[in-house]
Amino acid sequence: MRPPVLLIGLLAIALAPYPGRADEPPPPSKSKCAAPAELLQDDPQLPKIGEQFRKHEPVVIVAIGGASTAGTSPDSSYPYFLEAALRQRHPGEDISVINKGIPGQTTDQMVARFPKDVYPAKPNLVIWETGTVDAVRGVDVDAMAEAVTDGLGDIQKHGAEAMLVDMQYNPGTVSVINFEPYLDALHQTADQQNVYLFKRYGLMKHWIDAGEFSFINVPRERRLPLAREFYACLGEKLADAIDYAAR
Fold this sequence. Notes:
By secondary structure, the chain is of the alpha/beta class. It has 12 helices and 5 strands. The chain has one domain: 3-Layer(aba) Sandwich (Rossmann fold), CATH 3.40.50. 47% of the residues lie in helices and 11% in strands.
């Protein structure tokens, strides 16, 4: 039986859009955002981004992905908080993070929109969150891995570095959808292509198991604040990962 379409968005669905916005990103709690170093310290590096920072040259990052990249609103998304976190770490630098998240797309569909949504911005780094919709729809795992490989090669041909982001973890969805083959395929492809992989799945599992976040039965009035808290932490950890890989 095909999983219900409502599961596609995972956190973005669990924390459905709620009216309102804040002008400034809230400072996330360091203790709430804490994570083991091994979840962030991957071997592949980002030497071009490192050089941009050292030379104080503008840095353009495009984040492409699905519902969890789009976020619950433009200012409640991890690209929004990532830009704020990088600007705090590199004061005075020209850093922009462009959000190109569109819900409900497979890996193949994302690759097809690279020419329109990614390359015109001339990014130094492409953060690519993918695999969730492929798992939900039961796309052939090998076909997904091939699409990831092709997409990474195309990003490199356009002169940008790449960072992959794996799926979200939520106990309510992993019991229904078998993410493991797709998760393994993403990790193996990242290893084969020597691309930094941001272990969001493991990071979220750590936070949920530690009781820092819970996305089950969230009251309506808590959805937007919880979404912002979570995406603020995710943005902080992505900034940590970028600085680590650009060292």
